[in-house]
Amino acid sequence: MIMRRPIQILSFLALPALAWAQDGEWVSAFDGKTLEHWDADPKFWSVEDGCLTGTTTKDNPTEGNTFALWTGGETGDFELKLQYKIVGGNSGVQYRSFKLKDGKDQWRVGGYQADIDSGDTYSGILYGEAFRGILANRGLITELNEDGKPVTVGTLGDSKAIQSKVKKEDWNDYHIIAKGNTFQHIINGVHTAECTDNDTDTRRASGLLALQLHAGPPMKVQFRDIKIKHLGPKAAPKKQAAAAQPTNNVNDFVLQVTPSGGYVLRTQPLTESALTEVLRGLAEVNGDAEIRVRGGKARQAETKAARMAIKDAGLTVKRGKAPIK
Questions:
Q1: Backbone dihedral angles phi then psi of residue 298, each to the nearest 5 degrees
Q2: Fold entry, domain 27-238
């Protein structure tokens, strides 16, 4: 029985102050004088008082959100630090992002966004601009499943208490960390949101860095002291990252302890024979277990094989809401 085998367990506490290994050097992404290394619509973006400034007015509105795109390279695994000030409206810092083919202008992008808000709701959240919507609300630690929907696995604090640390119409420090498929947002030293993206069909390992100017009422947002540090080599493209070699070793597990007191048991990709052994062990422990298989269109053969292995172990396969008998 598999549960009797020796299991190597590593315990990870999902603490707010999670630290990443830091290699590389901080590089300035804005010289404070010109728009060099930034591609933006000059009708809305300029350098004002040493700040990268985006402005809309009643007489000069933007049709749809528009962005200032950094041309200094792509963001993979990185840390970003900057200061921002916003008066009216909404903004954000895009990372690992992509240009939209159907954008209102050539400066329209989608992807992960560290949100900025002149109101009391969105500052610090992780938003997917044209990219699955809200991924982590303020004060939450979330994980995205293969269906791209966020599941809360822990908390970082009360949203209103975090909002009280954000300065209105004044300068704030934003710190963004992206390592692997986990993202952290920090404003004025306070962790605001954290998300791990396990949606292998949609998540992004690298992409554009950009600053948002939101459509709607007149607004003004300014950025200064923008600096970035790349953390080691760029992340592998999505297909390569998902192509880890399966193993027949079913003894190596990781037990993650969540802040809410629950547990998540993980293992590396398994071969069919190792998967069968795991499922048989599960059947001995809990023969009433029901398992849902997600693989997407690109993994139809593996998905079918997994379903057959589950049924062969005497367990129930679930597809949609109804189990397969």
A1: -75, -10
A2: Jelly Rolls (2.60.120)
